[in-house]
Amino acid sequence: MPKKRIRKYAGPVLAIALFALAVRLLIREAHQITWDEFVRGLTGVPASQIVIAAFLIALNYGLLIAYDILALRYVARSLPLRRIALVSIAGFSLGNNLGTLLAAAPIRFRFYSQWGLPAGQIVALISVVGLTFWSGWWFLGGLVLIWVPIQLPPDVTLPFATQTLGVVLISLAILYSLVCFLWRKPWPIGELHLRPPRPGLMFVQASVAAVDLLISATALYLVLPGDSVVPFAQVLAAYLVAIGVAMMTQVPGGLGVLEVILLTLLKGTVGDTVLASVLIFRVLYYWLPLLAGMIALVGYEIFSGAVAAREASGIVIDPERSVEAGRSVEAGRKSVAGGKSDSPGKSVSAEDGDSGGLGDQEILLPEFQDDNKPADG
């Protein structure tokens, strides 16, 4: 019992401690920046670049839908795109700000269970969503840090160079690839039996996550002051380090962690005005999508409540289904009146009209097995 309690609270306590440390470091760095420098950083970014960065971030959140599509492919389930888009955008927009455990995972559990997925498949789905990000980060981060190592400030010392970190990341990427190519036996994880994704799915995972990271890094690059001269590769390398560390700390939104790392790694080339640019990036990438995600959730809840109320009162809200239902009733009456059925050897199955393809079948890919199905090979 004590061990379970320790495991339960260790993660949140560590995240709070890291958040406090990051805020302390950020305040110390901010004290070295004058108000005029901060204002110059805010006003030094051309409005056109902010608009383009906002467009790229909107495009980026659209790409994030592919994370859930790939995870559903892994568990061999199919849902309408509008539903996947809702849960993905809501999950990422709230999860990026409030954390995976507090927002992203509960949102996916609520909606996917409501739409018919069992708990085991939802756990596997959430795991694959996370694995998709890390696979792309390993591949892209390894390549970038090997070819574009970051020059650390003199007051920052690490036990190894950033190029060494790139070697470690690319090694993890190669190891993950080998596992996906060679390992076919299921891994028992709790009550689940999961296999590594097949090579094709693994390749798409890494590609989607790499493009995701490239787009968000480009948005950060665009909101840097117009007079700053810094290569995009250096901004990309700094962003990959910052976002990876922020994700590993599990601090909600990487608040404080992302800022202090980017400020530390970029102020030598961009200048102290980089803090204002990071603030603009946080507004565009974190806070505005959070508002959009909350509006989408509230709108969905209001619409679902209205639909449930109308169905409870017996009001038909779908004219097409009403016409089809009328035709079915009329055909049944004629069949009874005639004393025979048009197709006595057939049975009629109801369709909900929302899911199709694999979504209506209990089909499991070789990658996924639940606890009720034996693990082969």
Task: Give the SSE map.
Elements: H1 2-30, H2 35-43, H3 47-63, H4 65-74, H5 81-98, H6 100-114, H7 119-147, H8 162-182, E1 187-189, E2 192-194, H9 199-222, H10 232-249, H11 257-266, H12 274-312, H13 319-338, E3 368-369
Antiparallel strand pairs: 1-2, 2-3
Describe the protein.
The chain is an all-alpha fold and 377 residues long. The protein is 69% helix and 2% strand. It has a three-stranded antiparallel beta sheet, with helices on one face. Helix 4 packs across helix 5, helix 4 runs antiparallel to helix 9 and helix 5 runs antiparallel to helix 6. The C terminus is likely disordered.
Number of DSSP strand runs? 3
Strand and helix order = HHHHHHHHEEHHHHHE
Main sheet record: 3 strands, antiparallel
Tell me the helix content.
Answer: 55-70%
Q: Structural class, judged by helices and strands?
A: mainly alpha
Lateral arrangement of strands in the main beta sheet: 1-2-3
What's a quick, concise take on this entry?
This protein is mostly helical and 377 residues long. The chain is built from 13 helices and three strands.
Descriptors:
globular, 377 residues, 3 strands, mainly alpha, 69% helix, disordered C terminus, 13 helices, 3-stranded antiparallel beta sheet
